[in-house]
Amino acid sequence: MAVRLRLTRVGKKKQPTYRIVAADQRSPRDGRFIEIIGTYNPRAEPSAIKVNNTAAVKWLSQGAQPSERVRKLLELSGAWAAHTTGADAPEVFQVPEPEAAPEPTSEPVSAVASGSDA
């Protein structure tokens, strides 16, 4: 059985969210899978990625082939480097939440636009 690490689509119409899964190569994209390794939300800013690096390295060491996109996500999480070089990777990788935007000023637009250039 050839195992691939790939994305399966979940979420509502026009609002995709993906699971990173280990699945048989012959099964359909959203079909049966062996194990969920993480999640990926490309619509968040920045993209939300959560990967269980321990499980990913386990599957890679057993010969699972990642898809192109999953390989890039594993490179971001450090699991790919841990697999190829034997270095340590964090057990679970998660992209930190973006910082809150600064509060807008309460001054009227006309006062800011006119300034005191005179």
Write a structural description:
The chain has helices spanning 53-61, 68-77, 79-85, 109-114, and strands at residues 3-10, 17-24, 35-41, 48-52, 65-66, 92-94. With 118 residues, the chain is an alpha+beta fold. The protein has a single domain (3-97), classed as 2-Layer Sandwich (S16 Ribosomal Protein, Chain: A), CATH 3.30.1320. The termini are far apart. The model has no long low-confidence stretch (mean pLDDT 81). InterPro entries: Ribosomal_bS16, Ribosomal_bS16_CS, Ribosomal_bS16_dom_sf. This is Small ribosomal subunit protein bS16. Keywords: Ribonucleoprotein, Ribosomal protein. GO terms for molecular function: structural constituent of ribosome.
